[in-house]
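User: Quick sanity check before I run a bigger batch. Here is a single chain. Can you write out its predicted 3D structure?
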Amino acid sequence: MAFAQQTSAKTQPNDKASLVGNGNDSRGPVNAVPIDPNYVIGPQDTLDISVWKEPDLTRTVPVRPDGKISLPLLDDVQAGGLTPAQLSVEITHRLKKYLTDPRVTVIVTTIASQRIYILGEVTRAGAYALLPGMTLLQALSSAGGFTQFANTKNIYLLRVEDGKQVKHPFNYKEVVNGKNSGQNTVLKAGDTIVVP
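Assistant: Done. Predicted structure follows.
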């Protein structure tokens, strides 16, 4: 009996983890996705800055359009263009003037700076947060599906490569049927999907 209770207690966190990011809540997947250690912070992201044993310095802050955040004692700190680990080192370095051995943790709680755009014959055209590893097919599902006039054989992806805009074809019907799956590319920030 005791063994069964220990087993269920050990599996419980995994069960919760499997429920996170199931797509039922529009904010869920953005907050539930583990952040790549190389993720670069950008404007409109939200950061949780935690200074160990210093509750007055611990806070959640948005990254402003200029890429900076405001913190007590430090005023403006450049966050845009840095990884969370790099920002943690920078804040730690600057806090050493005021604290002995500060311990700073930076967590990205909302990813809003990296966006993709979906245009044309979809239910909900617009800008969407780019999740790590998001494919073209996954992005189209975020837009709520196609309208009755959509030409699903001639969808295309516009991407800037080496300073030039490049058009990549995407045939939805082929990809869904398991043919030519190489068209289902992983998206990058700034990509635009057009459904004619």
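Confidence is low (pLDDT under 50) at residues 1-33.

User: Great, the batch can go ahead then.
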